[in-house]
Amino acid sequence: MKTLCLVCQNVDCKNRGSEQIMAELQKRVEAKGLADVEVKPYMCFGACQEGPNVVLYPEKNWYAGVKVDDLDEITARLGGGPHVQRLDTIDSSLKELIYQLLDTGVF
Amino acid sequence: MEGILFPHGVVEGREGLKEYQARGGYGALAKAVKSNPEDIVKEVGDAGLRGRGGAGFPTGKKWSFTRECPEHPRYLVLNGGEDEPGSKKDRMLMEHLPHLVIEGVILSAYAIGASKAYLYINANYETAIRSMTDALTEAENASYWGEAVLGSSFKVDIEITPAPHNYVAGEDTAALEVIEGKKPWPRQKPPFPVTVGLFGKPTAVNNVETLANVPPIILHGAEWYRRFGTAESSGTMIFSLNDDVNHPGIYELPFGTPLRYLIEECGGGIKSGKKIKAIMPAAPSSAFLPADKIDTRLDHNSMREAGSGLGCGVVRLIGEGTCIVEEVLKISEFFTVESCGQCPACRMETNTLTSLLKKVQQGQGGQPILEQFGKILAFNKGKGFCNLIAMPGPPIESALRLFPADFEAHLATGKCPADN
């Protein structure tokens, strides 16, 4: 299956710049020719205070507080590079809840 | 049936001052200003009056908490936001019996020691606002409010504030925000308005129907009032029936009246003529009841035991052939739209529940999707500033428990099992 790069577009994340994050990710994915990656908006991951939030699925990597400077590393991850551990700061119970939702196909 | 608020049923037009006085109107106020405010609080407490806005909180207790706060000034807010879909009882009271409501406001202000009362009325209720405005003028000219009420040392000012017409604007702290000139967003609680309310001062926020019960209680006494209803739900309650019955309208009934009486005798039964599949005793946020609970009594305890609640009395009927998945999706979409958006948990919960229900509706996700509802609701329990976050839970969870076949049919075929 395609890798989904889900970028929260709810109010808090947007206020913290998630529209620009999504547009920049889109550009970089296209520039790298990552045909099996789809950058998509997501309604809310429930971690608004820590946004902008980006989740890669089915890899189940959650990146919080993402800034433009972080996007090269995330794009590299989308191309098969290493997990960006320093942005993986979200509580595991919330992660589990959201990953279960994604497993049922709620994108 | 004889009521406490509408003694002769719902009347046409606005009851003027003279007509109200002719049936004892403002007699309770004349009696009150000669007694201690504490006695008024005690009488209302002894009567067992509970809020009619949805939560059923004891009014006497709310007033005691407000009075116990040493800060001044104190405020009274009449909550006539009435944004619950299908509810029209507060509008009817303000349109037809404005003096009853106003006397209730003045008595309550006297009881809690408030020098100012705000009448927070749904801005769409043009007739009710006109009716209340005219009645306020009549009452002021008769010295029922203003300086030296009925020649006593009690003075109170009253002002109308139009309430925005959206769901959360009817929440008590959202009302305070609007009166302070801000947008209708609920506040974090605690502190509760009884201690830190309007402009940071002690404030009692009471529903229109609640305050309309105060004059008869003070005039006739707590013991008389307790003759109506049940031990834990005294008095009457106004129920709203809508287009799903043959005779829509509002019906004032003593607490403890069987639900069947309201549906069949008052409402004339379900309009579609079909068998009843489910009953929502407090639409849209209560749990569904199966049709065999139609003899449940309309009081707080009986409804809780049956697995639902009374809310503010908007009773909805779902007929056989209606798909519950479609019904709860509409309810979930309502709460998603009406969430004010300031609390992340509420935004996440309402959006996710709606997405899950859409998946079910389209037959996607299989059985595991049904397990997600409870998890999302449990994760968000107790979060959020106001109660909206708790509202989608009862309808969704009861629908899953009572009507699993509707969910399974959608998941199996992607089609609605309903025949309409």
Reconstruct the topology from this structure:
The complex is a heterodimer of chains A (about 110) and B (about 425).
Chain A lengths: L2 E6 L2 H5 L2 H14 L5 E6 L11 E4 L3 E3 L7 H8 L13 H12 L4
Parallel strand pairs in A: 1-2
Antiparallel strand pairs in A: 1-3, 3-4
Chain B lengths: L16 H6 L4 H6 L4 H11 L11 H10 L5 E7 L8 H8 L1 H15 L1 E9 L3 H16 L15 E7 L8 H8 L23 E5 H5 L1 H7 L1 H4 L10 E6 L7 E6 L4 H8 L9 E5 L8 E2 L9 H7 L7 E6 L4 H15 L5 H18 L6 H13 L12 H10 L1 H10 L7
Parallel strand pairs in B: 1-2, 1-4, 2-3, 5-9
Antiparallel strand pairs in B: 5-6, 7-8, 7-9
Helix pairs in contact in B: 3-4, 3-6, 5-6, 5-7, 14-15, 15-16, 16-17
Short précis:
The complex is a heterodimer of chains A (107) and B (420). By secondary structure, chain A is an alpha+beta fold.
Description:
- The complex is a heterodimer of chains A (107) and B (420).
- Chain A has a 4-stranded mixed β-sheet, with helices on both faces.
- Chain A is globular.
- Chain A has one domain: Glutaredoxin, CATH 3.40.30.10.
- Chain A contains 4 helices and 4 strands.
- The longest helix of chain A is centred in the first third of the chain and has 14 residues.
- Chain A is α+β, with helices and mostly antiparallel strands and 107 residues long.
- Chain B is an alpha/beta fold.
- Chain B folds into 3 domains: 209 residues, Rossmann fold, CATH 3.40.50; 80 residues, Ubiquitin-like (UB roll) (Roll), CATH 3.10.20; 90 residues, NADH-ubiquinone oxidoreductase 51kDa subunit, iron-sulphur binding domain (de novo design (two linked rop proteins)), CATH 1.20.1440.230.
- Chain B is built from 18 helices and 9 strands.
- In chain B, the strands form 2 sheets. Chain B has a 5-stranded mixed β-sheet, sandwiched between helices. Chain B has a 4-stranded parallel β-sheet with strand order 3-2-1-4, with helices on both faces.
- In chain B, α5 packs across α7.
- The longest helix of chain B is centred in the C-terminal third of the chain and has 18 residues.
- The radius of gyration of chain B is 22 Å and the shape is globular.
- The mean pLDDT of chain B is 94.
- The interface between A and B is medium-sized, with 19 and 21 residues.
